[in-house]
Amino acid sequence: MRDWLSHRARIEPDTPALVVAGAGDAYSFGNLDTLVDDLAGRLSTAGVDPGMHLGAVLDSRLEYVCLIHAAMRLGATLVPMGDGLTARELAGQMETAAVDAVVCGAETEEAVVEAAGAGAGDDANGTAATSDDGATAATDDSAGDTAASHSPDLLLTVDDPVTDATEPLSTMQADSVTPAEWDLDDCQLLLFTSGTTGDPKAVRLTTGNLLSSAVASMFRLGFDPDERWLVALSLHHMGGIAPILRMPLYGMTVVFRRAFDAGEVADDLDRYDATATSVVPTMLRRMLERRGTLSDSLRVVLLGGAPAPADLVERCRDYSIPVHPTYGMTETASQIATARPKEAFEAPDTVGRPLFMTDVTVVGEDGEPLPAGESGELVVSGPTVTPGYYGDDAANEEAFGHYGLHTGDVGAFDDAGLLRVLNRVDDRIVTGGENVEPGEVVDVLLDHPDVREAAVVGVPDAQWGERVSAAVVPRRDSTVGSQDTADVTGDADSAGEALDRAELLAFARERLAGFKLPKTVAVVDSLPRTVSGTVDRAAVRELLSEANREETEE
Q: Considering its fold, how many domains does the chain have in total?
């Protein structure tokens, strides 16, 4: 098949495709196709050939939307990288993904140029990445490839150059481009994992992965022929890219924002009659804090990227917001399981059922399946699952097993078949020889009426091996209480809020075995998070380790 936009533009050229929020500029599929064809032609003139790994380091903008489709039209594998990464981080990702060319903008050019210089050098075999001949998609990304020392030879900018090292695409004459043909097993995207549990890995996503994910998502979420999906997530994450890619598949309109602003995004939902959006919990909470509720035009609020706090789901229930808590991974091209609003409102801690054609198996430490009600590692199989990490044989060997992709997440099915995700396998705490699942402790803490958010980690402890420790964010109206039950640190006064800590631990003691109770509780203004919205557990662990050190010194 060729790129999806060219198909949609041929059959529905006048159908609305894209609205740029704020500016209000609107583009039909025919208009967008013209822009994409022009960009693809300029990229071709610059030397971007089929089969190349084309890096993107751009802030969210119209040119990025066009680049996503232009890469597919050219038969190039797109490698999105975060526009907030340092030169050192970019150099590592460019080398990991064997990036041949990079498209940047004025805001990111200097970091890209520095990164390309830092990673310069011949690879270990003295060869560069090769491209297929003709207008065909990349097929050289087998799971057994080994990424060698590599830096891009071609640096391109969509803005006026900031340095002498980049070539402006605006000055290039566009070649005539014949749309590339893609097979289902061709690698279309290389997306990086968040790196919260180690160095980011480049995930290979094929055309078949992306197509299967789009189909399964539509089956679960339903579809309105007049769908208007507001995109407020960054385009170097699957959650932001997915609606852009699916736009021509579904024939829907995307309302696109350059940057997230809680109040503005909430207003845009109403202003543009958006029917769907995807956000992470912190984004949704901020939107509700700014505007109280969301537009009644919405039929889907896809909530992922991090566990959805029960109180947030309950607020959506109270204000009739159609929230769909979801569990997904970069490695599965987005959703694995998604709850419908009715399921979420009845069981706020669930992420629903696996999507169509996706199988989830809960396995124990011996790798064998566990029955409903027992928690273990989640293993996923199906057509959305990546064929492997690029150039990382060790990671592939570790990740894939008899039942599929080992997610590294702990969860359980209930008797009704609803999935609950607890925490990462690596986050499991071993204290005094007993295993503690942090997610279970977090759920109990969040049930307390004075707790808004919580994170639980294990920190080193001479007596217990690991010490169960919690960081909690109080609700705005919580009051200062006694401090005689647990070691507590944190600047709660700066937020004008604190907790009755003794009462909190008494509450938890009624619901948890003694060895699961937090020995240290830190009251904080907010939980540290990664760019994707997940809790930065390393930062939480450092915060709580410092709390333990202060207690020891006292």
A: 2
